Amino acid sequence: xxxxxxxxxxxxxxxxxxxxxxxxxxxxxxxxxxxxxxxxxxxxxxxxxxxxxxxxxxxxxxxxxxxxxxxxxxxxxxxxxxxxxxxxxxxxxxxxxxxxxxxxxxxxxxxxxxxxxxxxxxxxxxxxxxxxxxxxxxxxxxxxxxxxxxxxxx
Length: 154
Known about the structure:
Elements: H1 3-26, H2 31-65, H3 81-91, H4 93-100, H5 102-116, H6 121-142
């Protein structure tokens, strides 16, 4: 696994923890609602940090061993750029969800992102429809009213 493949889920989990903290502060949802995703995010961040620490130790051993010793292979280093671009793509969901609300903003984001990545229109629309169904199902399952965005009229 490359460094960027470890960095990406760790950063996503950190963003999730920030969002859950803001949710607890603004909407006052308790552990009943936020506990499971928070636990998954903490576990994901912890596992990613542990694996990245192991990778750094492997690289240190490979450098100390020198080029003559081929028994220790350095881990492949990959630029962090692709992971950061993906994170910026995910951050684009925030203004859409804020402006249009969760049930409309999330499908707009998913459809736009899939189309931006080069998929045909029918695939982007299908993914947006699936995101809409998932968002509405999530809202109904939890029974939580969702705030409307400033661009959505009642």
